[in-house]
Backbone:
Protein backbone atom coordinates (compact mmCIF):
# COMPACT_ATOMS: atom_id res chain seq x y z
CA UNK A 1 0.00 0.00 0.00
CA UNK A 2 1.17 3.50 -0.81
CA UNK A 3 2.97 5.09 2.17
CA UNK A 4 0.89 8.28 2.08
CA UNK A 5 -2.41 6.41 1.68
CA UNK A 6 -1.46 4.42 4.76
CA UNK A 7 -0.80 7.64 6.73
CA UNK A 8 -4.09 9.08 5.40
CA UNK A 9 -6.08 6.09 6.63
CA UNK A 10 -4.22 5.91 9.92
CA UNK A 11 -4.81 9.57 10.78
CA UNK A 12 -8.41 9.32 9.60
CA UNK A 13 -9.07 6.35 11.88
CA UNK A 14 -7.33 7.98 14.85
CA UNK A 15 -9.15 11.32 14.64
CA UNK A 16 -12.41 10.35 12.88
CA UNK A 17 -14.17 9.81 16.22
CA UNK A 18 -13.82 13.48 17.12
CA UNK A 19 -16.52 14.38 14.56
CA UNK A 20 -19.39 12.58 16.34
CA UNK A 21 -18.06 13.79 19.75
CA UNK A 22 -18.25 17.42 18.62
CA UNK A 23 -21.70 16.75 17.13
CA UNK A 24 -22.85 15.29 20.45
CA UNK A 25 -21.57 18.38 22.32
CA UNK A 26 -23.46 20.65 19.88
CA UNK A 27 -26.66 18.59 20.26
CA UNK A 28 -26.33 18.68 24.06
CA UNK A 29 -25.77 22.45 24.04
CA UNK A 30 -28.79 22.99 21.77
CA UNK A 31 -30.88 20.73 24.02
CA UNK A 32 -29.94 22.84 27.04
CA UNK A 33 -30.47 26.21 25.39
CA UNK A 34 -33.48 25.63 23.08
CA UNK A 35 -36.58 24.36 24.92
CA UNK A 36 -38.26 22.82 21.84
CA UNK A 37 -35.11 21.30 20.30
CA UNK A 38 -35.48 17.76 19.04
CA UNK A 39 -33.82 15.56 16.41
CA UNK A 40 -35.05 12.34 14.87
CA UNK A 41 -33.16 9.08 15.09
CA UNK A 42 -32.44 9.20 11.34
CA UNK A 43 -30.97 12.70 11.69
CA UNK A 44 -28.75 11.56 14.56
CA UNK A 45 -27.53 8.53 12.58
CA UNK A 46 -26.86 10.64 9.50
CA UNK A 47 -25.11 13.25 11.66
CA UNK A 48 -22.87 10.67 13.31
CA UNK A 49 -21.85 8.98 10.05
CA UNK A 50 -21.30 12.23 8.12
CA UNK A 51 -19.33 13.99 10.87
CA UNK A 52 -17.21 10.87 11.31
CA UNK A 53 -16.40 10.95 7.58
CA UNK A 54 -15.77 14.70 7.75
CA UNK A 55 -13.29 14.34 10.63
CA UNK A 56 -11.75 11.30 8.91
CA UNK A 57 -11.11 13.24 5.69
CA UNK A 58 -9.95 16.37 7.50
CA UNK A 59 -7.41 14.46 9.58
CA UNK A 60 -6.28 12.29 6.66
CA UNK A 61 -6.02 15.31 4.35
CA UNK A 62 -3.19 16.74 6.45
CA UNK A 63 -0.93 14.17 4.77
CA UNK A 64 -0.97 16.27 1.58
CA UNK A 65 1.54 18.66 3.16
CA UNK A 66 3.93 15.76 3.67
CA UNK A 67 4.02 14.52 0.10
CA UNK A 68 7.39 15.95 -0.77
CA UNK A 69 7.31 15.30 -4.50
CA UNK A 70 4.20 17.51 -4.75
CA UNK A 71 4.67 21.23 -5.06
CA UNK A 72 3.41 23.25 -2.04
CA UNK A 73 0.78 24.89 -4.28
CA UNK A 74 -0.53 21.49 -5.39
CA UNK A 75 -0.76 20.13 -1.85
CA UNK A 76 -2.50 23.31 -0.62
CA UNK A 77 -4.99 23.15 -3.49
CA UNK A 78 -5.72 19.45 -2.91
CA UNK A 79 -6.12 20.05 0.82
CA UNK A 80 -8.49 22.95 0.20
CA UNK A 81 -10.48 21.00 -2.40
CA UNK A 82 -10.90 17.94 -0.20
CA UNK A 83 -12.02 19.96 2.82
CA UNK A 84 -14.40 22.10 0.77
CA UNK A 85 -16.12 19.09 -0.85
CA UNK A 86 -16.30 17.24 2.49
CA UNK A 87 -17.81 20.23 4.35
CA UNK A 88 -20.31 21.14 1.63
CA UNK A 89 -21.54 17.55 1.31
CA UNK A 90 -21.76 17.12 5.07
CA UNK A 91 -23.75 20.34 5.54
CA UNK A 92 -26.08 19.56 2.62
CA UNK A 93 -26.68 15.93 3.66
CA UNK A 94 -27.64 17.00 7.17
CA UNK A 95 -29.73 19.90 5.77
CA UNK A 96 -27.74 22.29 8.00
CA UNK A 97 -27.79 24.50 4.89
CA UNK A 98 -30.51 24.36 2.21
CA UNK A 99 -29.65 23.15 -1.29
CA UNK A 100 -29.84 26.62 -2.88
CA UNK A 101 -27.17 28.29 -5.03
CA UNK A 102 -27.09 31.55 -3.04
CA UNK A 103 -26.76 29.73 0.29
CA UNK A 104 -24.00 27.51 -1.07
CA UNK A 105 -22.36 30.69 -2.41
CA UNK A 106 -22.43 32.33 1.04
CA UNK A 107 -21.17 29.09 2.62
CA UNK A 108 -18.33 28.99 0.07
CA UNK A 109 -17.39 32.61 0.84
CA UNK A 110 -17.32 31.91 4.59
CA UNK A 111 -15.34 28.71 4.00
CA UNK A 112 -12.76 30.49 1.80
CA UNK A 113 -12.45 33.29 4.38
CA UNK A 114 -11.99 30.76 7.20
CA UNK A 115 -9.43 28.81 5.21
CA UNK A 116 -7.58 32.04 4.38
CA UNK A 117 -7.48 33.10 8.06
CA UNK A 118 -6.01 29.72 9.04
CA UNK A 119 -3.57 29.82 6.10
CA UNK A 120 -2.51 33.36 7.07
CA UNK A 121 -1.95 32.27 10.69
CA UNK A 122 0.21 29.35 9.51
CA UNK A 123 2.12 31.70 7.16
CA UNK A 124 2.74 34.14 10.05
CA UNK A 125 4.02 31.29 12.24
CA UNK A 126 6.36 30.14 9.45
CA UNK A 127 7.55 33.73 8.99
CA UNK A 128 8.29 34.06 12.71
CA UNK A 129 10.13 30.70 12.64
CA UNK A 130 12.12 31.90 9.61
CA UNK A 131 13.11 35.13 11.37
CA UNK A 132 14.19 33.17 14.44
CA UNK A 133 16.32 30.84 12.31
CA UNK A 134 17.83 33.84 10.48
CA UNK A 135 18.86 35.35 13.83
CA UNK A 136 20.55 32.05 14.71
CA UNK A 137 22.34 32.05 11.36
CA UNK A 138 23.74 35.54 11.91
CA UNK A 139 25.24 34.61 15.30
CA UNK B 1 44.55 30.08 23.32
CA UNK B 2 47.99 29.44 21.93
CA UNK B 3 48.32 27.92 18.48
CA UNK B 4 51.14 25.61 17.53
CA UNK B 5 51.69 23.94 14.17
CA UNK B 6 54.26 21.17 13.85
CA UNK B 7 55.05 20.07 10.33
CA UNK B 8 56.33 16.51 10.47
CA UNK B 9 55.92 14.25 7.45
CA UNK B 10 56.76 11.15 9.53
CA UNK B 11 54.02 11.61 12.18
CA UNK B 12 50.37 10.72 11.37
CA UNK B 13 48.30 13.88 10.90
CA UNK B 14 46.20 14.74 13.97
CA UNK B 15 44.86 17.72 15.89
CA UNK B 16 45.09 17.78 19.67
CA UNK B 17 43.64 20.61 21.70
CA UNK B 18 44.45 21.34 25.34
CA UNK B 19 41.61 23.41 26.78
CA UNK B 20 40.10 24.04 30.23
CA UNK B 21 36.62 23.33 28.92
CA UNK B 22 34.73 22.72 25.71
CA UNK B 23 33.96 25.99 23.92
CA UNK B 24 32.72 27.31 20.58
CA UNK B 25 36.36 27.33 19.43
CA UNK B 26 36.96 23.66 20.30
CA UNK B 27 33.67 22.71 18.67
CA UNK B 28 34.62 24.66 15.54
CA UNK B 29 37.98 22.88 15.40
CA UNK B 30 36.21 19.55 15.86
CA UNK B 31 33.82 20.31 13.00
CA UNK B 32 36.68 21.36 10.73
CA UNK B 33 38.46 18.08 11.45
CA UNK B 34 35.25 16.12 10.78
CA UNK B 35 34.80 17.92 7.47
CA UNK B 36 38.38 17.24 6.50
CA UNK B 37 37.96 13.54 7.28
CA UNK B 38 35.16 13.15 4.73
CA UNK B 39 36.55 12.39 1.29
CA UNK B 40 34.05 12.90 -1.47
CA UNK B 41 34.65 12.84 -5.18
CA UNK B 42 32.56 14.93 -7.53
CA UNK B 43 32.56 14.78 -11.31
CA UNK B 44 32.88 17.81 -13.55
CA UNK B 45 31.97 16.25 -16.92
CA UNK B 46 34.37 13.29 -16.80
CA UNK B 47 36.97 14.88 -14.60
CA UNK B 48 37.01 13.66 -10.99
CA UNK B 49 37.48 16.40 -8.39
CA UNK B 50 37.89 16.09 -4.63
CA UNK B 51 35.11 18.06 -2.94
CA UNK B 52 36.05 20.68 -0.40
CA UNK B 53 33.05 20.33 1.92
CA UNK B 54 32.99 23.90 3.33
CA UNK B 55 32.51 25.14 -0.26
CA UNK B 56 29.45 22.95 -0.85
CA UNK B 57 26.16 24.83 -0.40
CA UNK B 58 24.00 21.73 -0.63
CA UNK B 59 23.53 18.27 -2.10
CA UNK B 60 20.41 17.79 -4.18
CA UNK B 61 18.65 15.07 -6.13
CA UNK B 62 17.85 15.99 -9.70
CA UNK B 63 16.82 13.51 -12.41
CA UNK B 64 17.61 10.68 -9.97
CA UNK B 65 21.22 11.85 -9.69
CA UNK B 66 23.01 13.42 -6.75
CA UNK B 67 24.59 16.82 -7.31
CA UNK B 68 26.80 18.93 -5.10
CA UNK B 69 26.13 22.64 -5.56
CA UNK B 70 28.90 25.06 -4.76
CA UNK B 71 28.76 28.81 -5.34
CA UNK B 72 30.12 28.45 -8.84
CA UNK B 73 29.51 24.93 -10.08
CA UNK B 74 27.46 21.78 -9.98
CA UNK B 75 29.28 18.48 -9.53
CA UNK B 76 27.87 15.01 -10.02
CA UNK B 77 28.26 12.47 -7.23
CA UNK B 78 28.10 8.73 -7.60
CA UNK B 79 26.38 7.71 -4.39
CA UNK B 80 22.97 7.61 -2.75
CA UNK B 81 21.60 10.52 -0.74
CA UNK B 82 20.98 8.42 2.39
CA UNK B 83 24.55 7.02 2.37
CA UNK B 84 25.87 10.53 1.84
CA UNK B 85 23.81 11.82 4.78
CA UNK B 86 25.43 9.26 7.07
CA UNK B 87 28.96 10.27 6.12
CA UNK B 88 28.53 14.03 6.29
CA UNK B 89 29.52 16.04 9.40
CA UNK B 90 27.03 17.83 11.67
CA UNK B 91 27.19 21.04 9.68
CA UNK B 92 25.09 19.29 7.02
CA UNK B 93 21.39 18.75 7.59
CA UNK B 94 18.58 17.23 5.57
CA UNK B 95 16.03 19.85 4.54
CA UNK B 96 13.69 17.55 2.66
CA UNK B 97 13.67 14.22 0.86
CA UNK B 98 15.98 15.53 -1.88
CA UNK B 99 18.20 18.17 -0.30
CA UNK B 100 20.97 18.19 2.30
CA UNK B 101 22.17 21.67 3.18
CA UNK B 102 25.40 23.03 4.58
CA UNK B 103 24.22 25.13 7.54
CA UNK B 104 27.23 27.42 7.16
CA UNK B 105 26.26 28.17 3.58
CA UNK B 106 22.63 29.09 4.15
CA UNK B 107 22.08 32.71 3.27
CA UNK B 108 18.62 33.09 4.78
CA UNK B 109 15.26 31.47 5.56
CA UNK B 110 12.06 32.85 4.02
CA UNK B 111 8.36 32.11 4.42
CA UNK B 112 6.91 31.14 1.06
CA UNK B 113 3.41 31.91 -0.21
CA UNK B 114 2.41 28.28 0.23
CA UNK B 115 3.17 28.41 3.95
CA UNK B 116 6.45 26.51 3.84
CA UNK B 117 9.87 27.65 4.94
CA UNK B 118 12.35 28.11 2.10
CA UNK B 119 16.13 28.28 2.26
CA UNK B 120 18.24 30.50 0.05
CA UNK B 121 21.90 29.77 -0.71
CA UNK B 122 24.59 32.22 -1.90
CA UNK B 123 24.53 30.64 -5.40
CA UNK B 124 20.88 31.68 -5.76
CA UNK B 125 19.52 28.15 -5.36
CA UNK B 126 16.44 27.85 -3.14
CA UNK B 127 14.82 24.79 -1.62
CA UNK B 128 12.24 24.24 1.09
CA UNK B 129 12.34 22.79 4.59
CA UNK B 130 9.78 20.02 4.96
CA UNK B 131 7.69 20.09 8.14
CA UNK B 132 9.18 16.75 9.11
CA UNK B 133 12.74 18.17 9.08
CA UNK B 134 12.04 21.63 10.51
CA UNK B 135 12.51 20.54 14.12
CA UNK B 136 15.89 18.95 13.29
CA UNK B 137 17.05 22.11 11.50
CA UNK B 138 16.13 24.25 14.53
CA UNK B 139 17.86 21.89 16.94
CA UNK B 140 21.02 21.70 14.84
CA UNK B 141 21.23 25.50 14.57
CA UNK B 142 20.71 25.81 18.31
CA UNK B 143 23.48 23.27 18.88
CA UNK B 144 25.77 25.27 16.61
CA UNK B 145 25.07 28.44 18.59
CA UNK B 146 25.74 26.90 22.00
Residues:
Amino acid sequence: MNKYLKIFLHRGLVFGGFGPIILAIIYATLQQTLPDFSVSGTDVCLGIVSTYLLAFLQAGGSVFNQIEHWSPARSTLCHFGLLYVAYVLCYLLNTWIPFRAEVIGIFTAIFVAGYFVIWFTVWLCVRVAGKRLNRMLRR
Amino acid sequence: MKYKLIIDREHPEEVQVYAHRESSLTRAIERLCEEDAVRLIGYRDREAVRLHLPDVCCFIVEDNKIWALTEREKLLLKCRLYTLEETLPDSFIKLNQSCIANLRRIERFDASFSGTLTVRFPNGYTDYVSRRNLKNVKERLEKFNE
